[in-house]
Amino acid sequence: MKPIVADTGLFITLEGGEGSGKSTQGEMLTRHLQEKGYRVVWTKEPGGTDIGQALRKVVMSNRHGDMVPETELLIYLADRTQHVKSKILPAIREGNIVISDRYHDSSVAYQHFARGVPMATLDFLFQNLAGGLVPDITFILDISPDTAMKRIEKRTVSDPGSMSKFEEETLSFHKKVRQGFLEIAAKEPNRVKVIPADQPRNEIFNRILSFLNPVLPAIPDGEKSS
Ligand code: TYD
Questions:
Q1: CA angle (78 as vertex; 76, 82 as ends), nearest 5
Q2: Which of the residues 34, 84, 92, 93 has the least number of beta carbons within 10 Å of its own beta carbon?
């Protein structure tokens, strides 16, 4: 099947706390859209580029527990700047649908709402370094931090030592992150859709599709998959 290249691409982001199932939904969505004939770039932050992978190791390492919030923010912004300029924007301009597992709303929820870095600092860096690209649509997979912690604990029983720096944070930290995401959604209801994530994965997926279908670029007549 010939991939469909829309006139203009689409930028979709998936956000939410740890253990919310973003990656599973992102993979399901990528497959679904590819099967419909779209050309899809599935990527993530931090670590969507080679340079980003190196930055990810620094920012996520449990050995860097003494990292101050401003350093943490600058590393995420460095990752984002590289990601947007070398990968996301070129892909969108070529008409791809780009789906990113986390993007700038994560910085707002984690570094502003949970860590306390002023919003003006985030705005300045995002606009002046990372290009200020706003997603067309964002899905926040919302789950209570208590449920998420249980999911993570279950995973770490079979894979001890796999807890990330953020997964080791306190419950009150994760509550602030969740509150942050919900405030972002309340401020930008057209772009940001909150999806309850304590549901079966197919139900979550169908909810996502119900919001996404109306904004998908049309598939040109001659290229519709049979
Ligand atoms: P990752 O292993 O990708 O976790 P998840 O599967 O939950 O997405 O870890 C990314 C971590 O980085 C996650 O805990 C959230 C955090 N983060 C920020 O604090 N700020 C940011 O801007 C981004 C993109 C992520």
A1: 115
A2: 93
